[in-house]
Amino acid sequence: MIYDSLIAKKAKKIALLIDPDKHTDNSLAETVALANKTNVDIILVGGSLVSKPIEHAVETIKKTAVSPVILFPGSLLQLSDKADGILLLSLISGRNPDYLIGNHVLAAPFLKSSGIEIIPTGYILVDGKSVSSVEYISGTRPIPVEKPDIIIATALAGEMLGHKLIYLEAGSGANMRVNEKLVAGVREKISIPLMAGGGIRSASDALNLFNAGADILVIGSVIEENPGMLEKIMSVKAKIR
Ligand code: 1GP
Fold first, then answer.
1. Domain boundaries, the chain
2. pTM beyond cutoff 0.70
3. pLDDT given at position 8
């Protein structure tokens, strides 16, 4: 089980987020080769708005990927039984019922018959000081970063509701990523794994967030812009305190 391997050794993990719209088949294959070479732990596939068929992207990635391929769906159009698993996201920072339960009801029969691993995830959107695609598409407001008490209470509620993972998200390409103090505050209160992402752009960002208590970091945009950064970011795993 993918989830068990995430929590088993309390090891820090790095997830590479692949947005199919940003790739051709060739560049997808190159990105997977890079992920394999640098020992990326997880490949996530999805985005707030994806126009290319997700199934084709998943199949192309799966052809050569060594790590598990997990759906990170922005919508019901991004489901595929060819993936290894899915982050079944509940957008618990928001108050849009479609993103809390409505889409899940529509997806559940398909997911049940697909046999892919379901990882129930409490997804918390924190203000990254720019309007993110998630905010716009989901029609929800991010929690202000100046309200750590609300963010921590939301994470706690997510755990109490049975989510197996909390994902603290500032939104892809965020001007301001989630900060170390917030990650440490959430980490202290919850016992399930903590994932963080949105606007992580350097090895030092990654190292600082790991040292603050993040268990899994999600890296997307910076690798699309500069694939060479993946090796640098992966190398921080050897330096975590
Ligand atoms: C988005 O957190 C992920 O959901 C990745 O963000 O593209 O900014 O790395 P970036």
1. 2-236
2. yes
3. 62
